[in-house]
Write a structure and sequence with these properties.
Length: 184
Amino acid sequence: MTSKVATVEVAQPYAQALLSIAQSKNLTEEFGEDARVLLSLLSTQPELRNFIDNPFIQSENKKALIKQILGEGANQYLRNFLLVLVDKRRIMFLEPILQQYLALLRQLNQTVLAEVTSAVTLTEAQQQAITQKVIAITGARQVELEAKIDSDLIGGVIIKVGSQVIDASLRGQLRRLALRLTSS
């Protein structure tokens, strides 16, 4: 297996190349949406990831699958980029390349990624309130929310923006209360 550092080293130049292509064709947001769809597909379909990562499967089979997944209506530049990844034997890095592309796109758009963990699914109003709070804290133009559910939280939310963590969960409040009581 490759290390995380090695993966980032390989993914970074390809993500920058993809962003460069997208910017030259004025397709950065369209590529971003396609990247999100592909990442979702890879995370929900382990068989697909195994097929793409398997070095013993011939390149032509991988190319056929990519063409089938993308369909005829897909952007030709993105399709060609993915086919080049197959040719260069870098398709196994597709997921980190797409993640890095989205990070570069967020940086370009002055958007921050806020990972929100809650006990239950958040309503639209709660998501808007969190978005406004994150904008106030970070000064970013936009916020991209990535919601996760953790039933162990009991209630409240944990918001992670970069290295900053805001723990407004009941579990966190109980933990802080217990620490105060034991230190008194």
